[in-house]
Amino acid sequence: MSLSQSVREAVWKVDKDQPVWKVRTVESLMAYNVADKRFLMLLTVVFAALALAITSIGLYGVMNYTVGRRTHEIGVRMALGARAGDVLKLVVSQGMRLALAGVVVGLIASFALTRFVQSLLFGVSATDASTFVSVSALLIGVALLACYIPARRATKVNPLIALRHE
């Protein structure tokens, strides 16, 4: 932009009637041209993060409810000799089966719908393996954390209190 006045004067030396207006840098033109796509990308990222948060809260809630409902069963298991690690493995494996089933269904659906999002992507294919692997790993990690917290609480169940409850 510091050269804009020099460019105007050079153009006017060749042709005085030539209008020189809206002098902008290439960077500002590119920023203006991709502003809509950048906004849509930001909006997509925000909604994806919101969906991930809602999903993890929902899975945590379901697992927390399941552990609460199975307190008596867990107490019986612990009274019969189950270790805390066994209870942890039981509860986490139950939640992870649901999460893995959801990831598999999501992968199948996303592969089926890739042609609809192809026009929105730039510099990456709609079936980019690294994207699918990283998103699946993120979802499995979030699900593991959402299952681990209630499972950890299940290991703290006192068998006497759980058996006395009913």
Task: Identify the notable features of this structure and list them briefly.
2 domains; rod-shaped; mainly alpha; 78% helix; 166 residues
Any overview of this molecule?
The radius of gyration is 29 Å and the shape is rod-shaped. By secondary structure, the protein is an all-alpha fold. It folds into two domains: 1-33, no CATH class; 47-165, no CATH class. The mean pLDDT is 85. The protein contains eight helices and no strands. The longest helix has 35 residues, at 35-69. Helix content is 78%, strand content 0%. 11% of the residues are buried. α4 (71-79) crosses α8 and α5 (84-112) runs antiparallel to α7.
**Main sheet summary:** none
Order of helices and strands: HHHHHHHH
The rounded distance between the terminal residues' Cα atoms is: 79 Å
Question: Average pLDDT value?
Answer: 85
The tally of beta strands, per DSSP, is 0
What would you call the shape? rod-shaped
CA-atom Rg in angstroms = 29 Å
Task: Provide the structure class.
Answer: mainly alpha
What are the segments in which pLDDT stays under 50 over at least 5 consecutive residues? none
Domains (count):
2
Helix content class: over 70%
The share of residues in extended strands comes to: under 5%
Q: Helix segment count?
A: 8
